[in-house]
Write a structure and sequence with these properties.
CATH topology of the largest domain: Naphthalene 1,2-dioxygenase Alpha Subunit, Chain A, domain 1
Number of strands: 19
Largest sheet: 8 strands, antiparallel
Mean pLDDT: 93
Oligomer: single chain
Number of helices: 5
Shape: globular
Number of domains: 2
Radius of gyration: 23 Å
Bound molecules: FE2/S2 (inorganic) cluster, fe (ii) ion
Strand order of the largest sheet: 12-18-17-16-15-14-13-19
Strand content: 25-35%
Helix content: 10-25%
Low-confidence stretches: none
Order of helices and strands: EEEEEEEEEEEEHHEEHEEEEHHE
CATH architecture of the largest domain: Alpha-Beta Complex
Length: 362
């Protein structure tokens, strides 16, 4: 007898009560089913004739076959199971059971679960909460500078063999950049870095106080006006990170040049995640050339993280995490505390607001 582990969706407390990115808008075609897995839950999404997206549990109510391998009845906006032809409409209602002939219509006790869907800024988002009414206070994460004048943006989609907490920490972690991305992004300079780390109710905000930092390609090309480089790394519950490198006079002025790397991590399973990374850039005259090299460059850098995250994920498979931490890991501890609190169904002690000054060497 096959033993099933309890699906993540039933064991991750209130982490379900959020919108999660399921796919890129451009990957979802009209009347063509697309299957995704979020929190061990297979979901089928398709676009109806009017172009809007619908999402149903990708599991037939009859004998549990994967519905997305069937086809869409375009006229009725229904999905048809490939096994015995049962059809389910956009509300998950079973509207046709061919083996029951004309009487095989509309049995509501044969329905499949539906999921609220939103399309926003080039992504299809799914509400994973058990309540079908999404919390109006919680919105899909906004991608900074998406469709903003003078800025370019593109998405990258990457699968990682690790959990969301570790990935959010990796995307915010500075000390690894001089090892994992040595020569690609930042090289070791034996410099001291000072930063302020703040934990709020639902975010971890890190501001670096190092105005002579240099990233990737040369500062000369990107920063002709010799403006200070402002670097902030922020985490927003439950799974979003936003890394800003902005050259600007002060923190209130319009950035002259900049990169913003925003990642939203979708948990597929305990140690498997799909990350949607939005890269926004403002490079002045170089903007029109960026598509020729920037996607390639960011792909190389992300693949270096894919490897180190797979390494750590394998270690977690072999034994549970047991960490030693330094000052540079303060933001990791803050992220873990916020996510653990929600994963416990908010039964742990609520993490308090806290600000720490930290200092480390890269
Ligand atoms: S399993 Fe889907 S119709 Fe039978
Ligand atoms: Fe990295």
């Amino acid at each position: 007898m096959l033993i099933h582990k309890t699906p993540m969706r039933e064991t991750c407390g209130t982490l379900t009560e959020y919108w999660y990115a399921a796919t890129l808008s451009k990957s979802l075609k009209q009347s063509k089913p697309l299957s995704v897995v979020i929190m061990d839950t297979r979901i089928v999404i398709w676009r109806k004739r009017d172009g809007t997206a619908v999402a149903l549990r990708d599991r037939c109510a009859h004998r549990n076959v994967i519905l997305s391998k069937g086809e869409i009845n375009i006229k009725e906006d229904c999905i048809k199971c490939p096994y015995h032809g049962w059809e389910f409409d956009q509300n998950g209602e079973c509207v046709n059971v061919p083996s029951e002939g004309e009487s095989g219509k509309a049995f509501n006790n044969r329905s499949v679960e539906t999921f609220p869907v939103i399309e926003q800024e080039g992504l299809i988002w799914i509400w994973m909460g058990s309540d079908k009414q999404p919390d109006p206070e919680k919105k899909p994460f906004n991608m900074p500078f998406y469709n903003t004048e003078k800025w370019g943006t593109y998405y990258m989609v990457t699968d990682f063999d690790n959990d969301v907490t570790s990935l959010a920490e990796n995307f915010m972690d500075v000390p690894h950049t001089v090892f994992v991305h040595k020569g690609w992004f930042r090289s070791r300079s034996r410099k001291q870095v000072d930063a302020t780390v703040e934990r709020t109710e639902n975010s971890v905000l890190v501001t670096y106080h190092q105005e002579n930092d240099a990233i990737g390609f040369t500062d000369r090309i990107l920063n002709p006006k010799k403006l200070p480089l402002m670097h902030t790394d922020n985490f927003y519950m439950p799974n979003n990170t936003r890394v800003d490198y902005l050259w600007r006079k002060d923190k209130h002025s319009e950035p002259d040049r900049g990169f913003v790397i925003t990642s939203t991590c979708t948990p597929v399973s305990d140690l498997r995640s799909r990350v949607f990374t939005c890269i926004s850039y403002k490079l002045g005259m170089l903007n029109y050339m960026a598509p020729l090299w920037l996607p390639w460059y960011t792909r190389q850098v992300i693949n270096q993280d894919v490897d180190i995250m797979a390494n750590q994920g394998q270690s977690f498979r072999e034994a549970p995490p047991k960490f030693k931490s330094t000052q540079a890991d303060t933001l990791h501890l803050f992220i873990e505390s916020l996510r653990d609190y929600e994963a416990s169904g908010q039964t742990l002690k609520k993490p308090s607001q806290r600000t720490r000054e930290i200092s480390f060497w890269i």
